Amino acid sequence: MCTEPKLTRLDRVFARLDREPERPAHIDVPRMTPHRVVLFAAALAFYGAIVWAVVVTSWLVRLDWQVMFFRPYQQWAEIHAFVDYYVVLGQRGPTAVMVAAWLGWRSWRQHTLRPLLALGVSLLLLNVTVGAAKLGMGRLGPHYATEIGSNEMWLGGDIFPSGHTANAVVTWGILAYLASTPRARRWLSALSAVTSLGVGMSTVYLGTHWLSDVVLGWTAGLLILLALPWFEPLIARAETWLLDLRDRRRERRATGAAVPVAPVEAPVLLSSLPTAVEDEAAAREASPPTRSPRAPVYLAPGPHTSRAERAPGTPAGSRRPPHTERTARGAASTARPVTGG
After folding, report:
1. 3-class secondary structure per residue, the chain
2. What does the pLDDT read at residue 208?
3. Is the dihedral of CA 216, 221, 223, 226 positive or negative?
């Protein structure tokens, strides 16, 4: 007997992907063109130049201290509340949730897991590269600076490069990277650039980052977006593996839903049994089991006598031993011998 398999939430999501009309074959996948390679090399060189300028305590470090002493949060105190909310656009958790929701809808519409996988790969690269740079250089922030004019490097900090800025570049830039048309890609690129730059300047306004932190964070996020086409084959293999895993799960559930019918065994012939066993079975079927005879139950021991024959007070006659010399009452007495006296 076959029953319909009960679909889980993940199975329903994949079923919706299969029913949508748009196909991923019409989506242009970015490639690592020579133009992109040149841009990547230029951004990497700029990244190294900023790090070197901070390490040698150049004019960039002096500019950092001048901006810090300017105290923008005191100069423009009226926008402090707005900046506190705006800087959330660079935090990892809220931005990842918002962008993942949009890309999940894109995956549902386009029959493909590539948008979500591209977001996962970009965030993984962001955590590895930016996190390693933060811990490796250990720069302290403006609020924890120890010496005026110092670069504050290798003192146990974790602000160089700016994680807020790099996260804003990657999270909002992935929307432009996955855009379906060139026009949408241009508009989304400009929007993500303005948003990420605003997030970086918000951290400088609040005094949580140096200006050089923001510039290096913006460059680090741009490097990740430029390097993503190198990971497109890995994304394609991961998508194929996940969809194959889904198909295998469906096949296992389909085969497990059908109730298997037990095979009918061949009847056992009585002639194949041993002779003694066959005779014993036939004798048991022919004669029903006999019960052991029960002894008769009597109300009183001995033969039953009439009430008239019973003596008063004795239910079954007198229990006294018989005396031959006595006679019954009322009978004629015999002559007794007369003795002299």
Report:
1. CCCCCCCCHHHHHHHHHHHCCCCHHHCCCCCCCHHHHHHHHHHHHHHHHHHHHHHCCCHHHHHHHHHHHHCHHHHCHHHHHHHHHHHHHHCHHHHHHHHHHHHHHHHHHHCCCHHHHHHHHHHHHHHHHHHHHHHHHCCCCHHHCCCCCCCCCCCCCCCCCCHHHHHHHHHHHHHHHCCCCHHHHHHHHHHHHHHHHHHHHHHHHHCCCCHHHHHHHHHHHHHHHHHHHHHHHHHHHHHHHHHHHHHHHHHHHHHHHCCCCCCCCCCCCHHHCCHHHHHHHHHHHHCCCCCCCCCCCCCCCCCCCCHHHCCCCCECECCCCCCCCCCCCCCCCCCCCCCCC
2. 93
3. negative
Can you read off the two tokens belonging to residue 303?
């033969």
Residues of the chain with pLDDT under 50: 20-23, 268, 270-273, 296-302, 304-319, 330-341
**What amino acid occupies position 104?**
G
Four-CA torsion 123, 126, 128, 134, nearest 10 degrees: -140
219 and 47 Cβ atoms separated by less than 8 Å: yes
- Per-residue pLDDT at 324: 52
pLDDT at 179: 87
341 is written with which tokens? 């006296």
How many beta carbons lie within 10 A of that of residue 224, not counting itself?
25
Q: pLDDT digit string (tens) for 277-315?
A: 555 655 565 555 555 555 544 444 445 444 444 444 444
3 state DSSP class of 315: strand
The pLDDT, as a whole number, for residue 55 is 95
